[in-house]
Each structure stands twice: as structure tokens, then as C-alpha cells.
Amino acid sequence: MYPVNPKLTRRRFIKGVIASGAAATSTSIWYAANGAERPPGSVERLIRINVNGQVRSVDVAPQETLASTLRYKLGLTGTKLGCNRGECGACTVLVDDIASYGCSILTHSVKAKRIETVEGLESANGDLHPVQQAFVEELSPQCGYCTPGQVMAAVGLLRANPNPTREEARQGMAGNICRCGSYDSYLNGVMRAAEIG
Amino acid sequence: MAYMHIGKDFVPPDVPGKVTGRIKYSEDYTREGMVYARLLTSPVPHGRVVNIDASAALAMDGVVGILTADDVYPDGEPQSTGLKILTNEPTLVGEPILAIAAVDEKTAESAMALISLTIERLPFVLDPLDSLREGGADAYSGGNTFVFRQGFAQEKWTSDQITSFQNGREPSAEPQQSWEYGDLEAGFASSDFIYETSFSTAGYPHMSMEPRSAMAYWENGKCYLHGTSQSLTALAEPMANIVGVPLEDFVFINEATGGGFGQRSRAARIPSMAIPARFSQKINRPVMMRVTREEEFTIGGARQGLQGWIKVGFKSNGAMAAMDMYCVSDSGGKGGGGDANSAAAGVSALYQAEAMRFRNTSIGTNTGHRGAQRGPGENQIMAIVAPIMDKAAEALGLDRLAIRKMNAAQNGDVSGSRSTPFTSAYMPECLEQAAEQFDWDGRKSRARQTNGSKVTGLGIGQGYHNAGRSGMDGIVRMLPNGRLQMHTGVGNLGTYSYASTSRAAAEVLKMSWDDCDIVTGRTDRHLAISSPQDGSNSIFTNTRTAYGAAQDMLAKMKEIAAMDLGGAAADYDIDGSRVYQITDDTVGMTYAAVAQRALELGGKFTGEAEVPEDLNSLTALSVSRLAGSALMGIYHDPRHAGNPPGFAVAMIEIELDTETGKFDIIELVNIAECGTVVHPQGLKNQLVGGAVWGIGLYVLERHLYDPQNGIPASTGFWQSKIPTYLDTPANIGTGWVDLPDPENPVGARGIGEPSMGSVSAALNAAISDALDGHLFDAAPVTTDMIINHVAGISEQAIPLAQNNFRG
């Protein structure tokens, strides 16, 4: 057991949970390798989640967020952490087609759901998704750190509303912050993506 | 002039990586054996570490080490302001004191709880005026200000002086800094309209989206640092110095940067990156230091807040006859910032005041460290001056556009205390274009019209920043396969300048962009020194170096052709893939053949001899490592003459609801005057991004601190509060003048910062217009300030307050 830290804030707690991957993984592997049952009453650690159409087995701590699982367990670093507290949307992924903050979802809560990340959008032959293609053509990104989240928010928006007005797009994208202020260019990208289909 | 690449859109090579998530920022890397560092930061705004007992923490399973200020400064901490790697003398809440490394972050966090930190609390202060007041606390142990080359000092004003200043009168205390030109007294004497007021503008954090995480490891005596910067070569050598490693043993890796805005331009502004580097050296393991949003707030820097007094005089024809400005600048917890001086220089450049005086005193507070943030100074002051221009126009019976034209900078004009001439200036043309695109003549009759509780306001704003430097270097190589390698150190932080400036080389060599590769991302790819990509200078500065290096290559190509095919170098020309004789184009060599021949010849053709002697040290190192590898073009850029300005003009129509204090932006156009346009889409992004930042500056963003404990309350995006989709209009009109500057080989100047100042100024003018010319003389203007004004309720806040709700 780790000693309890009375000074842990929520963010530090989440960061700690994120980082517990290495030790937690080794513990789980020990149980599996030795055929031992997990301790009575404990939460199942080795779970399966459907990410980008593939079922992935992953060892997940009880309080682990989806963003940390994707980034630090599955190596899907396209999902970014800008704030880790549900403010910025850089970690936006689709959960059953709904744009969701990966930093604010516990991985254990999405075991039965479909997760899509920015890495899953390209076609098998490498063609960009229409939203990605439109964002390239409109030069929507600036620094790019928020871009994967903007892409996923746009994909989610267009699945729900394939032909939004610009104002609807603005409202639909409002959960994603861009510090570079590239909102106008992202909206151009969303509208172009709607045209491309 | 017809260009092949300049002025044309293209897909910068990093964009696909940004939309697919493939491009890597520093925290996306990993390394076998990597451990994780967490920071123990100061819980007090000002203190002195008395004792650190980490024995219990170090005894924990999984903990691999500790790094303290004593480790990084064995001879004692520098006795100056400025960020330190770690400190035992914190001057703001959140300043890093030590780092713990463990096999995972949770263990490191848990270990920190076992550290017994004994810290002596020292008096703290949050507002410069509170520190200036006799008996007020000082932000630093040695005083409340730091004088260059002299050290810490204490500056105090009498209570009467403070109160007088807060009541809007000219400060009477001796300033730390001053300059002036012209006859100020005569200027005011000749003025038909004089306006005088105090003002305050808020400091606020940069809040780049990417926290400044860093990872480092050592291998074979070399330090490899994955970090963040605005330009990786500008930062590399000073960063190596901070880490304490020779430049030749330091590799800085920085493929992409998630926002800079001034605070990632210089190594001294990101010394935290040395923590994993020094830690890795100490424990011989790769170290990842993930930085949280709260930590990014603390060590990520902030704009300076200004508390000022300004007096402006206008002649009957609208000409600005005199400008007198006095500022108290908030230098925060670590010193730094030259906003006030830049503000004054900006006013001089933009409004061409015939006589001007500038005075400033910089005072520390125990708040976030200060430094350059997008248009530091210029963008605050333009918002203060714009509605004063409107007041003058109204008083003198002039059109608001006309009074700006009267004072507009043009070719041949000078600015600043040294009367530096502009390299070129087309502000009248910029005003004209904005007026046309906005339909100023058609809209101006709508000013102050009401519709129920809503009232229309119109505003014109102008932005300026010095937008060009020189003295950097360029390297290009031609490989034997005919591909051009452009070695640039310009950072990839979203301006796309790293790519657009490189196109000047392709332009010189008339090459297809498909045959060119940009070499960047890590210093062991042997890059040229670049400017720090701050101060809106990148386009001007780095097109000069790319162009110069390509010219050097072109001369060598012609020389090789003449050597092998006969005649003189001047007898040859190029077509993008061949060097050929002008009189007989069947006689020639392909670029690939020339490159192959260069390898056989060696010497100056491959960078093994006759290298420019005045190359910067990093470039010289890169050239020495590339020597003999290809045909090389190498260039050191001499100093340019004059001041290359970046100008912008914005026009805004708002509809302000006097019942709620909220407003909608009905129309916004932002027009650039930045010489020849190099990359239209990139320029457009700077104009829309600058507009968003301008809205943030004037109505949203600020520093908030708990006055009792000095704890920051705006550590997150939402508290800070940076603009969102819903705070900004769905459409932002953009445009540009597109007239060449003679000091740049392709005619280009920069724009990143003026594009913000123009909008903050226009927005303030529009709000003032909607409120019958009322001036708040403060930024940000919040809804409650508007409601209180409409209701005739005087504000309860402290005049000129900083780092609190009024400022």
C-alpha cells in the first residue's frame, strides 16, 4: 500500500493515478502469472475496452481516467492533456459517438462502450478523415496542441448534425479551447468538412 | 513582383501530424528506464527555506532521488531577480523548491507528503502601490525593485503621492527610468484639446495549451532534453548554460510547441526544463517531469500589469502635439518585463506624437513572474489611447477615422527617443483598407443608436510592434539527389514561420517545393541559429537568412558550372533543377550533378573552408558537423538599418446591452500592414488569433490573488479567463495591405503582436462609444463595471488595483 498523502489535491490525485501504471501493471501481471485470484473485494484491474475498433486488454487502476489510459497505457498520445480538469477539451474523444472529455471519464465506466481517438480516424489506406482533411486545407491548427480534441469534437458534431450552420458549429465546438485563438479557422474547417461529407 | 512561393499558400509539413495526433510534444516521449519527477512548490508567497528533511521520503520504495536548490546552485543561488531552477528563497506561491523522482508519479507525490519542509514566512505584497507606500512590504528580501547592474533596491513613495496618483493626478515621485524628445511644454501649450487620466491594465498568465513538461536523459556524456520553446536554436545555447553542459554536448529536441506567446522564447524564462536534465545527471536515469496546469500557471509567466497616468494634447487639426506618460509596472515575483517602455515607444510609433515624455518605475509583487507576452506594453496602451483619440475627435469636430489618418505613420517617419526611421510604413493605406472592408462610412451613423436596452458602439483600433531583427544565420544544403535541405532553428509553435521563412530559399533557387525538405526539430540535425521568434520578428529576420544562404549556394552552383563547363559564373542562370549557360541553355548541369561535383571539390563548396567568420557559435558548430556532407550555402546576416514596423488596424461594431453589461460583436475586421505577404493562411491565422487575444485583454483576462494569503485564484483556463468560441465572433474579417519593405529581400515584415493590439484598442473604443464616450481607463472592462456605470453607481474597488478584481 502507498502511504496516504493528506495534501493530495484532486489534480495531484489524478496525476498519481495516471502514473501508477508501471507498478500497478506489474502487480496485475504477478497475479495473472501466478494464477492467483485478486484480493477479495478489490476492483477488477485487467479489463477490455474497445478503442478505435480494436478490443484492447489493459490494466486499469480504479480511479484511472480514460485520457491517462489512452496516453500512458495504450500509447495513444494524440489525446492531449491541457488541463486534466475538464476545462479545455484537448483530451476530447468519442464515447459511443459522443464527444467527451477523456480526463473526466473513469476508464472503468466505458468498458462496454466504443472509444474513438484521433488515431482511429484515418482510413486503412492512410486517407485522412474529412474533418482532418478540411482542417489541413483551412490551416485550422496553429500550435496544434488542442487540435486532436478539436478534430474529435468536430467529428462528433458532424455525426449528430451533418450540415450545421456556422452558429450551430460554434455552439457545438464550444467545449474546446484554443489558446492560439484559431476558432475562426476551426469553424471554417468544420464547415468545409460538412461539405466534403 | 511575381514570386513562385512567396505569397502562396502551402501545407506546412507538420500540419498532417497535428490533425492526426502524430506530431510529438515533449510529454509524448518516453525512454526505457524513465522515472518521474514531481515538484514540491512554495506554499507561501514569500519565504525562506530553513530546513528540508527528506529522509522518510527517500526511504520509500520506488523513490529514486531528490533534487534541491543546493544541488543546482552549490555555490549559492544567484542574487538577482529572474526565475531559478529551484529555490530556497521563494517569492511567489508555487515556485519550485525541490523535485522528487520515483518509478511513478503517485509514488513521487506520496513521497512529497513525507518531506518535512520548514519555511520562514516573510512579508508579501500583491499590488505595486502597496509596496511603494511607506511601510509597505517588499516582494524580495533585498527590496521591492531590482536595478540593472546595481542590484536590489527599495523604492518608496509618500502616502500623499500614492493617493494623488490613485486620484488621477500626475505622479510626483522621481521615476527609475525616463526618456523624452521634443518640447513637451510647447506641445501642450499649442494643444486645443488635452486629456489627462490615470489608468490600469491587468497582468494575466500566458496559459499556453501545452504545459511545459520536459524529459531528459544523458547518454555518452551528452544531455538530451525534450522540451518546449519558440525557437529551438535561439534557446539551445543559453539552455545548455543553465543545465551546465557545453553546447557541443547538449541536444535540444523540440518538434512542436503547444503555444509560446513570449514566455518560451528565452531559456531564462523556462529554467524549469533544467530540472529533469540536472536530475537525470544526478540519478543516471531518464527523467520525465510532467507539468500540471496549476504549475504551468505559476512557472509559465504573465503579462505585466501597468498602473499609469497619461496626458495627451491635440492641435485643432487633430495632430498629437504632446504625450506624457508615467507608469508603475508590476514586475511580479521574479522581476522582469519592459512593457511600459514598449508601450511608450509604441505610442510614439503609432501616433507620431510631436513631443513625448516617458517615465517608469518597476516594482515587484509576490505574484506570477512577468515577462514578454504578445505585444508586451504596446497592446495594453493602445486600448487606453484609442478612446482618447475618439474624445479628441469629438472635441475638435473631426471624424474618428480622419484623426487617425492625421497621425498615421508613413514612409519617411521616425519614432521613439532615438528618432529611428521606419524601414517603410503604410498606416494610411491600412486605415483606408480597413474602412473599406468594414464600410466605416456606411456604418458610422449607427454609432450610439439604441434598440431597447441595447446600444451600438463603433471602434477603431491600431496596433504596432517593432517587427524585424537581423544578425542571425542561414544554412542550406543540396544533396547529390538534388533535394534541398533547409536547416532552420525557427520553432514550430503555430505560426508556421519555420516553414514560410524557409520558402525564401526555395524562391531563390527556383525550386519546386516538393524537392525541398525542412530540417528542424532537434539541434543534432545541425541547424542554424534563428531569432527567438518573439517580437513579431520571425518573418523579417529569418527570410533574410534563408534568402542569404540560398544566394550563397546559388553563387557556388554557378561557380562550379563555370569551372566544369567553361565561362564565368555570371554566364549562368538556373531554372529550378539545372544550372545552364545563358547563351546556350543546352549547356548545363543538374542541381544533383552540381551537388555531386561539390562533394568532389570540397573546400568552400561543402563548408570545409571559407566559412563566414562571424557565424553565431551554434551555427558554426552545426556547419562544422555538416562540413563535407553536401553542397552548402552558409550565410551570416548583417545588421539592417531602421525600424521594420508591424501595423494592424481593426474596426468593430458591438451591440451592448445596458441591462446586462454584456455585448455582442456584430462585425470585426482586422487588417495587417506587414510588408509583402509571405503565407496568406498563416497571416490570416495571426489576424484571427490576435483578435481573440485582443478580446481577452480588454474584457476577460486577469490575475486574481487572495489578498490574505497571496494564493493565486486564476490558475485555470476558466478563472483566468481565456476567450472561448462563445466569447468571440463566429466570423472575423481579415485583410492585408501587401506592400513590400525595402529592408527585406522578399519585402516582408512581422505581424503577430500588432494584430492583437488593434482589436483590444478597437473594442475599448467601441465600448466607450456605446457608453457615450465614458472611459473606464482600465482593462479588463467587466460586465459589472459596465452595469455600475450605467446605473450611476461608483465603483467600490481600490483605484488602479492590480492582481485583484479591479485590475
Could you please describe the fold and organization of this structure?
The complex is a heterodimer of chains A (197) and B (807). Chain A is an alpha+beta fold and 197 residues long. Chain A folds into two domains: 10-118, Ubiquitin-like (UB roll) (Roll); 130-196, DNA polymerase, domain 1. Helix content of chain A is 38%, strand content 12%. Chain A has seven helices and five strands. In chain A, β3 and β4 form a beta hairpin. The longest helix of chain A is centred in the C-terminal third of the chain and has 14 residues, at 147-160. Mean pLDDT of chain A is 86; it is low at 1-8 and 15-36. With 807 residues, chain B is of the alpha+beta class. Chain B folds into three domains: 31-122, Aldehyde oxidase/xanthine dehydrogenase, a/b hammerhead (Aldehyde Oxidoreductase, domain 3, Alpha-Beta Complex); 306-468 and 642-791, Aldehyde oxidase/xanthine dehydrogenase, molybdopterin binding domain (Aldehyde Oxidoreductase, domain 4), CATH 3.30.365; 469-636, Aldehyde Oxidoreductase, domain 4 (2-Layer Sandwich), CATH 3.30.365. In chain B, 29% of the residues lie in helices and 23% in strands. Chain B is built from 24 helices and 31 strands. In chain B, the strands form eight sheets. Chain B has a seven-stranded mixed beta sheet, with helices on both faces. Chain B has a six-stranded mixed beta sheet with strand order 8-16-15-14-9-31. Chain B has a five-stranded mixed beta sheet with strand order 19-20-28-29-30, sandwiched between helices. In chain B, a hairpin with a 5-residue loop joins β28 and β29 (663-673). The longest helix of chain B has 28 residues, at 538-565. Chain B is globular. Chains A and B meet through α1, α2, α4, α5 and α6 of A and α1, α4 and α21 of B.
CA radius of gyration of chain A: 18 Å
Q: Quickly name the level 1 CATH class of the largest domain in chain B.
A: Alpha Beta
Count of DSSP strands of chain A: 5
Taking the sheet with the most strands of chain B, its summary is:
7 strands, mixed
